[in-house]
Amino acid sequence: MPNQNNTMLKYLFSVVFKDGTEYHQNQDDKSAIDPEKRSAFFDVAQRLEDVKSFTLNGEGRSYCVNLEDGGFSVNGNTIYLHEEQILAPARLIYWRKHTKQFQQFIDAETGEGMSKPEEIGSTLVYQIGWQSTDKDGKNYQHTINIQ
C-alpha cells in the first residue's frame, strides 16, 4: 500500500534489472503502474525474476544485495554471508516493518481507559536479502536488517 501517513521514508529503494534498466522508489511510495492502490514495490514485483541488485539509500548510506553472487554491500564495501556458491536463481527478500508504541492510562479497578492512546515512539526496520532452493528442495536465506 502506498505511504499514506505522509511520513518521510528513511530509505528509498532502487533496483537494477538484468537488462540494465533501473527503477527508483519515490518518496510517496506510489506505483507507476497503479498509483492509487499500490506501492512502488508492486512495480518491481512484476519483474522479480529479472532483479539483478536491490539497494536501499538514505541518510548518506547505502545497503545493497546482489542477487547474482549473493553479496551484500554496505556503503560500497562488499561482504558475503555465505561460503557456498550461490544457488541460482536467487530470489529477492525485502520488507519494511513500522512498529508504533502507544501509551494509555487504564483504571486499575474497572480496566477501562482513562485517556486516549498516545503514540510515544516508533521504529522502522528494513530487511533485504536473498533466498534460493537447492536441487534437494532445501531453502537457503541470507538477510540483513537495517534500522
Keywords:
147 residues, mainly beta, 6-stranded antiparallel sheet, 45% strand
Largest sheet: 6 strands, antiparallel
- The helix/strand order is EEHEEEEEEE
Distance between the termini: 21 Å
Q: Give the strand tally.
A: 9
Compute the CA-based radius of gyration. 19 Å
Calculate the mean pLDDT score and round it.
89
Question: Beta-strand level of the residues, as a percent range?
Answer: 35-45%
Helix content: under 10%
Classify the secondary structure makeup into a structural class: mainly beta
Low-confidence spans: none
Strand order of the largest sheet: 2-1-3-4-5-6
Q: What is the helix tally?
A: 1
Descriptive report:
- This protein is mainly beta.
- It contains one helix and nine strands.
- The mean pLDDT is 89.
Write a short abstract of this structure.
By secondary structure, this protein is mainly beta.
